[in-house]
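Project outcomes to date are best conveyed with an example. Our students and postdoctoral researchers have been running inverse folding experiments weekly, and each run begins with a structure described purely in tokens. The record below, which covers 553 residues, was selected by the lab manager from last quarter's runs and is presented without edits.
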């Protein structure tokens, strides 16, 4: 009896010791610094954040600040629900893995098994795995809606609208399985497959999954009128806090509402993969890349990379002012999650600032080259003028205005450059953004951009033979039958054109880069140029939609 009492006392003292270790996992100084990072962009009377850290399967830090709703002055708590947007993809992928474990589908299944009328002229298989790792080549519906002139968030679209639009598509961005290109369409289709295979709606099936994971306040939404609270209302920051109504019903790629408490519960499960309802091996698989050896940076709704020399898993979610971020460093066995309803907060930055603090990195080191290795030969301003591009059509244009070299980029203000050496210029108000002009082995002019925020990258100047080119040959009206969108192209003067979308007020001034490529803001329009003959078809590329075919009307 005495030994039993001593044993109970020892267990009690051990439990107190363990609790004390959790409660004081960080020093008071570290906690203050974490609090500062968490609240740095949460001013008084503003929307805010919920953030937390899980280490070794335990919540070791939790902070929330700011208002969930400015109208009723309700504040954010551990029970406040946020739309975590694309961070919901990991749970769509988990649902697919669960159904695969139940032998109700295989990741190698062609999606035409579930959508027989989709992409009937594509001979290569388009598999569930291709959807999971974004290697399907299927175009992003948000970019397709944008091409149609539709502002998606002003509409109440559901997954049936997504499928209807994709059923009209006859071509893909690229051959399935050959490359990675993020497309939200993939995960909306995965949600539909879950519904078809499980015999339940996607929302019902995943709600059951969340109950098994002990995440009771997490659910996808297919009817915005039935979203359960308390909800962190989203607010943009345009000199004043501006709310907006959420009327969206499509899901699978996002539209997942959850609390910081539930998201930290998921991180605990990942670190200690033992739950009553989900086998540990499924949780472990969900944290790996898929089987395609060509796709090594994206898995089951999860990105892979390195952060501060540590292997990392991460994802970002954003839909308007709702934003979410998580980063997992399995080598250190800790995860950080941040959710926000504020247009002012940048959660991806905050999670990494917290990670730096936990890793003991006082002054974050930049591991990439910031300046050219050596000074090159002198180049005059006149010698570097022109248009420079990467292989994926990212473009710099250099022009001379008055006596200065000016950089033009789509979607940004024109930037005056200042010479700092024989062949290097920098942005007048940001000397760390440098442009180095050199010639490659073929003698072609190229520019290499340096900055603290990214590794150096190079763009090659477009050089073309314009002999025999008819500048009027690309004028006309062209139709894409998959989206029922027309574009009209008309020459303004020289190599400058007007690109108009008939029936809308969209009118873009475009520049001819080569005899076969036209740049119209974010749209790259390519065509085959047969000398002295009118162009019969165009191919339009922008972001997550590539080489959309337009035929002359």
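After processing, the design step wrote out the following sequence:
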């Amino acid at each position: 009896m005495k030994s039993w009492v001593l044993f109970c006392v020892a267990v009690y003292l051990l439990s107190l010791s363990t609790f004390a270790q959790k409660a004081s996992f960080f020093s008071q100084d570290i906690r203050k610094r974490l609090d500062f990072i968490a609240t740095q962009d949460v001013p008084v009377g503003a929307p805010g954040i919920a953030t937390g850290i899980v280490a070794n399967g335990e919540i070791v830090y939790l902070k929330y600040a700011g208002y969930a709703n400015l109208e009723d002055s309700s504040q954010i708590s551990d029970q406040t629900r946020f739309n975590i947007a694309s961070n919901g993809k990991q749970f769509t992928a988990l649902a697919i893995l669960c159904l695969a474990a139940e032998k109700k589908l295989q990741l190698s299944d062609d999606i035409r098994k579930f959508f027989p009328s989709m992409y009937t002229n594509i001979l290569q298989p388009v598999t569930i795995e291709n959807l999971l790792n974004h290697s399907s080549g299927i175009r992003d519906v948000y970019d397709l809606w944008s091409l149609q002139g539709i502002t998606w968030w002003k509409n109440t679209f559901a997954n049936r609208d997504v499928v209807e639009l994709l059923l009209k598509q006859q071509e893909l961005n690229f051959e399935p399985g050959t490359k990675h290109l993020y497309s939200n369409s993939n995960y909306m289709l995965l949600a539909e497959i879950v519904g078809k295979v499980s015999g339940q709606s996607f929302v019902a099936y995943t709600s059951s999954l969340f109950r098994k994971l002990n995440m009771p306040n997490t659910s996808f939404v297919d009817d915005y009128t039935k979203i359960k609270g308390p909800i962190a209302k989203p607010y943009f920051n345009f000199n004043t806090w501006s709310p907006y109504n959420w009327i969206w019903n499509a899901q699978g790629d996002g539209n997942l509402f959850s609390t910081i408490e539930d998201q930290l519960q998921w991180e605990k499960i990942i670190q200690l993969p033992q739950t009553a309802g989900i086998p540990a091996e499924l949780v472990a698989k969900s944290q790996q890349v898929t089987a395609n050896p060509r796709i090594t940076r994206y898995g089951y709704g999860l990105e892979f990379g390195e952060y501060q020399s540590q292997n990392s898993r991460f994802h970002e979610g954003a839909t308007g002012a709702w934003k979410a971020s998580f980063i997992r460093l399995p080598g250190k066995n800790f995860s950080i999650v941040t959710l926000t309803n504020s247009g002012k907060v940048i959660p991806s930055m905050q999670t990494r600032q917290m990670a730096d603090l936990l890793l003991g990195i006082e002054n974050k080191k930049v591991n990439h080259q910031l300046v050219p290795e050596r000074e090159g030969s002198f180049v005059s301003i006149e010698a570097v003028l022109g248009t420079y591009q990467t292989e994926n059509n990212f473009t710099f244009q250099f022009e001379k205005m008055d006596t200065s070299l000016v950089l033009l980029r789509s979607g940004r203000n024109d930037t005056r450059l200042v010479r700092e050496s024989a062949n290097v210029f920098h942005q007048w108000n940001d000397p760390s953004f440098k442009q180095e002009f050199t010639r490659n082995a073929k003698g072609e002019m190229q520019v290499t951009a340096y900055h603290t925020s990214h590794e150096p990258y190079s763009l090659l100047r477009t050089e073309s033979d314009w002999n025999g080119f008819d500048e009027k040959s690309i004028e006309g009206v062209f139709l894409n039958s998959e989206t029922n969108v027309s574009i009209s192209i008309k020459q303004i003067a020289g190599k400058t054109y007007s690109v108009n979308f008939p029936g809308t007020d969209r009118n873009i001034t475009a520049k001819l880069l080569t005899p076969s490529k036209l740049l119209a803001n974010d749209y790259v329009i390519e065509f085959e140029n047969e000398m002295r003959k009118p162009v019969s078809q165009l191919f339009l590329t922008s972001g997550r939609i590539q080489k959309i075919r337009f035929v002359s009307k």
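The radius of gyration is 27 Å. Residues 2-23 form the longest helix (22 residues). The training component of this project remains on track.
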